[in-house]
């Protein structure tokens, strides 16, 4: 891969093959548009992976070379193998960043890291969305301004069944009146997780440069600060000398007299 933050953009890549409306918007797949968009902004080396590749494109070698994983899923959450989910979860807890987009809220990996149902309300009538920046000092919102306005989107509405975010940085208002926590940050183990709502497959959301800018900023924010392998070692050599104890000390939970 090129130098920079190593990003893997994962996509089901099913709608683009089967739905003509989606194919017109993303002929080569949403993952390609996102990867090209964030690379163009500099300092990022992006690769892609899709559901139908061996191991869903997320081999041990790929995950080892991934600083930040971007996840888009929708119609085939159940087809993602549990062993791949466990590998991704382990990598996040060790330090890899994870950015979950749009309907990825119902993915196995997001649910595993949140520990909740991650359910919500939704409606698809191509309504306007105003995505309000409520944390203008946050690294992810830099260069965005007060809000992003999207003319046609799918509505996601509260209540969004997620743990309280460590940081809430975007709130959406929709033309039909609903609101939604659309930009949420969490720390999980040594890794960082960002959920970003915009991105329904039939709308050109990922051609919007403000949306790409948010994802790009999120990659920089979520990049590993530290990486510590997940293990639970038995430390037989103490740092300090331990005073000798009698052979009966502590037996049955009591000190023998």
Question: What would your notes on this structure say?
Answer:
- With 257 residues, this protein is of the alpha/beta class.
- It has a domain at 5-116 and 181-229: Class I glutamine amidotransferase (GATase) domain (Rossmann fold), CATH 3.40.50.880.
- The chain is 23% helix and 28% strand.
- The protein has helices spanning 15-18, 20-25, 30-40, 60-64, 82-94, 108-114, 209-222, and strands at 5-11, 44-50, 68-72, 97-101, 121-133, 147-157, 167-174, 179-188, 191-196.
- A nine-stranded mixed beta sheet has the order 2-1-3-4-9-8-7-5-6.
- A hairpin with a 4-residue loop joins strand 7 and strand 8 (179-188).
- It is globular, with a radius of gyration of 22 Å.
- The termini are far apart.
Which descriptors would you attach to this protein?
Rossmann fold; 257 residues; alpha/beta
Which term fits the overall shape? Answer: globular
Query: Would you identify the CATH architecture of the domain at 5-116 and 181-229?
Result: 3-Layer(aba) Sandwich
| CATH topology category name of the domain at 5-116 and 181-229 | Rossmann fold
Helix content class: 10-25%
Strand content: 25-35%
State the name of the first-level CATH class of the domain at 5-116 and 181-229: Alpha Beta
- Biggest sheet: strand arrangement: 2-1-3-4-9-8-7-5-6
Number of helices: 7
> Radius of gyration from the CA trace?
22 Å
CATH superfamily of the domain at 5-116 and 181-229: Class I glutamine amidotransferase (GATase) domain
**pLDDT averaged over residues:** 95
The secondary-structure class comes to: alpha/beta
User: Distance N terminus to C terminus?
Assistant: 66 Å
């Amino acid at each position: 891969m090129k130098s920079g933050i190593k990003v893997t953009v994962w996509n089901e890549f099913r709608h683009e093959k089967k739905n003509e409306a989606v194919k017109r918007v993303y002929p080569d797949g949403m993952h390609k548009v996102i990867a090209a968009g964030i690379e163009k902004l500099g300092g990022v080396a992006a690769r892609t992976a899709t559901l139908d590749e061996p191991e869903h494109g997320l081999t041990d070698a790929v995950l080892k070379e991934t600083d930040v994983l971007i996840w888009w899923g929708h119609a085939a959450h159940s087809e993602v193998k549990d062993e791949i989910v466990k590998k991704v979860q382990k990598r996040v807890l060790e330090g890899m960043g994870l950015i979950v987009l749009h309907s990825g809220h119902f993915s196995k990996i997001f649910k595993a890291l949140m520990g909740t149902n991650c359910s919500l309300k939704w409606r698809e009538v191509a309504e306007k969305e105003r995505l309000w920046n409520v944390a203008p000092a946050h690294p992810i919102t830099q260069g965005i301004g007060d809000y992003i306005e999207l003319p046609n989107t799918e509505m996601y509405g509260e209540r969004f069944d997620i743990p309280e975010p460590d940081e809430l940085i975007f709130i959406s208002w929709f033309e039909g009146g609903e609101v939604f926590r659309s930009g949420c940050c969490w720390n999980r183990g040594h890794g960082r997780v960002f959920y970003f709502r915009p991105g329904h497959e039939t709308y050109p959301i990922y051609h919007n440069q403000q949306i790409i800018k948010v994802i790009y900023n999120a990659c920089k924010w979520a990049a590993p600060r530290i990486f510590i392998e997940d293990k639970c070692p038995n430390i037989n050599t103490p740092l300090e000398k331990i005073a000798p104890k009698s052979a009966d000390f502590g037996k049955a939970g009591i000190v023998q007299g």
